[in-house]
Amino acid sequence: ELFSPSQKYQLLVYHADSLFHDKEYRNAVSKYTMALQQKKALSKTSKVRPSTGNAASTPQSQCLPSEIEVKYKMAECYTMLKQDKDAIAILDGIPSRQRTPKINMMLANLYKKAGQERSSVTSYKEVLRQCPLALDAILGLLSLSVKGAEVASMTINIIQSIPNLDWLSVWIKAYAFVHTGDNTRAINTICSLEKKSLLRDNVDLLGSLADLYFRAGDNKNSILKFEQAQMLDPYLIKGMDVYGYLLAREGRLEDVENLGCRLFNISDQHAEPWVVSGCHSFYSKRYSRALYLGAKAIQLNSNSVQALLLKGAALRNMGRVQEAIIHFREAIRLAPCRLDCYEGLIECYLASNSIREAMVMANNVYKTLGANAQTLTLLATVCLEDPVTQEKAKTLLDKALTQRPDYIKAVVKKAELLSREQKYEDGIALLRNALANQSDCVLHRILGDFLVAVNEYQEAMDQYSIALSLDPNDQKSLEGMQKMEKEESPTDATQEEDVDDMEGSGEEGDLEGSDSEAAQWADQEQWFGMQ
After folding, report:
1. How far apart are CA 252 and CA 250, in angstroms?
2. Exposure pattern of 151-169 as b/e (b: 16+ CB <10 Å)?
3. Alpha-helix residue ranges (DSSP H) falling in 216-304
4. Which residue in 132, 69, 143, 142 sits closest to 106, CA to CA?
5. Ranges in the chain, pLDDT < 70
6. Which residue among 3, 255, 308, 437 is buried most deeply as judged by most CB within 10 Å?
7. Rounded-to-integer distance, Cα 225 and Cα 219, Å
8. Which of 442, 421, 443 is nearest to 431 (CA)?
């Protein structure tokens, strides 16, 4: 009661700020609301008595926290509480002329998340009008299908007025290609930027380049670029979820585990460390734990595409296909140009024998993303499931391999088709050609299977060995090798079976342990269940 009205307002804001930093967001909103009411009362008092102490009160009133800043802080609280509608409502209440660039930026992001694209575009453009070098606003507009030329026109004046800024127009062009799904041209444009002395060894560009190689199905170059970016910035978190996923797919689980530990040491408040650990669990066949870690990542960042894909894949492998479909659809909504999102959904349809839905989706992807090796292979994968469309699958795979003879998924599917037709010699030639310039565990293993079919046992054994050296956890290569060893020496085989029987109890014990752990994680996962 000893304080003046203006001091009360000031203290309420300070109190709310303190609560905000202590992450007591609901309490902070309550105090910010009280502060705004106090400010309203203060404004009415000053209108009634405009002459009283006018000269003395001016410096004090200038020091008072801005009402607009208080509303911005309230909106931040609402976003932390995942009450986006309330955040939009509080920011919408600020007159357009009084909105600062950060308010417009927050509004643009909230509108985008809510699916209000037109309002989002307007807000992003307002940010660029005030701050022509706001790169996040440029990316926001490009992600909402605003043409690169239109976005570039909004920055042309600043580019011409500031020296050494000519790279920006090329940068805009590159990310325009990224958001239209033209990966090849995006890669070429970013590579041309990277050669310029100003942007050489730029971590952000290297990360984008790695992501583009990944989208284009060039995993080898993607890993190389991620490693390069990581060497330049040891504290890099952005994109490391994709990097971890690629390492896990290659069977480098020890590297994935080390990466996860390193990322947790940097920050456990980002989705990426949880996704990397989830990938390690998923490829170790611990699906309940992968599910929990994926859910935790989504809780930290609901826009994490890789987290949604991880959780969706874990749900699918646990037989919860309908729940998995929800996650893959959300991933597609967030990243409509990423093929792996569609692949996950189509795999769910095929797992539930919904071949018609899978075919519709594969055709839509083919039309939307264009006829490239990846979309052709995806469509062929669905066609292989139906005996009526086998010939169409063959034609599509031939087209894919004409475009990219080294595309592993296309080679694998073509080999599958040749195996069905028992054309083993053709399959061996195809696989040898694919392995001429690259080494891949799956290709070596399939080549081993084909060589067994034509009685080339020694070379088949070599291929299985190479596959296991690339991925020691590849069960199919191990099974192929063990089957051959038993066939080669029947007497040894019977002895090995006895030994296996003796060791069997130990293996069952391990499996029981993993089941009990899975149940434990499944209980925890329910708390994180996605609505």
Report:
1. 6
2. bbebbeeebeeeeeeebbb
3. 219-232, 240-249, 253-266, 271-283, 287-300
4. 69
5. 46-62, 488-531
6. 308
7. 10
8. 443
Count the helix, strand and coil residues of the chain and give each as a percent rounded to the nearest 5: 80, 0, 20
Beta strand spans in 464-507 (E):
none
CB contact at 8 A, 119 and 96: no
C-beta separation of 270 from 262 below 8 A: no
Report helix angle 5-21 to 67-80, nearest 10. Answer: 30
What are the tokens at 367? 């039309």
Cβ neighbours of residue 186 closer than 8 Å, sequence gap 6 or more:
174, 175, 177, 178, 212
**Residue 503: what pLDDT?**
47
**Domain extent for 470:** 422-486
pLDDT single digits (tens) 223-256: 999 999 999 999 999 999 999 999 998 888 999 9
pTM attached to this predicted model: 0.79
User: Of the residues 332, 361, 395, which one is the last residue of a structural domain?
Assistant: 332
Residue 394, CB-side half-sphere exposure with 13 Å CA sphere? 10
Number of domains in the chain: 2
**What is the 3-class SS of 52-115, one letter each residue?**
CCHHHHHHHHHHCCCHHHHHHHHHHHHHHCCCHHHHHHHHHCCCHHHCCHHHHHHHHHHHHHCC
- CA-wise closest residue to 308 among 292, 297, 319: 297
Burial class (CB in 10 A: 0-12, 13-18, 19+), 398: middle
Q: How far apart are CA 400 and CA 416, in angstroms?
A: 15
The answer to the question of residue 207 being in a domain is no
Q: How many CA atoms lie within 13 A of 123 on its CB side?
A: 26
Give the closest residue to 377 by CA, choosing from 346, 406, 409, 405: 409
Q: Which long-range contacts (CB under 8 A, 24 or more apart) does 380-388 make?
A: 380/410, 380/413, 381/346, 381/409, 381/413, 382/346, 382/350, 382/355, 382/358, 383/359, 384/413, 384/416, 384/417, 385/350, 385/355, 385/358, 386/355, 386/359
* pLDDT score at 469: 87
In a domain, 458, yes or no: yes
The CATH number for 478's domain is 1.25.40.10
Residue 291 lies in a domain: yes
Q: Rounded distance, CA 4 to CA 408, Å?
A: 74
The number of residues making up the chain comes to: 531
* Domain membership flag for residue 438: yes
Other CB atoms within a 10 A radius of the CB of residue 474 amount to 19
**Structural domain ending residue among the three candidates 307, 332, 357:** 332
Whole-number Å distance between alpha carbons of 515 and 455: 40
pLDDT at 21: 95
DSSP 1: -
Structure tokens at 522: 């499944």
Note whether 142 and 179 are within 8 A (CB).
yes
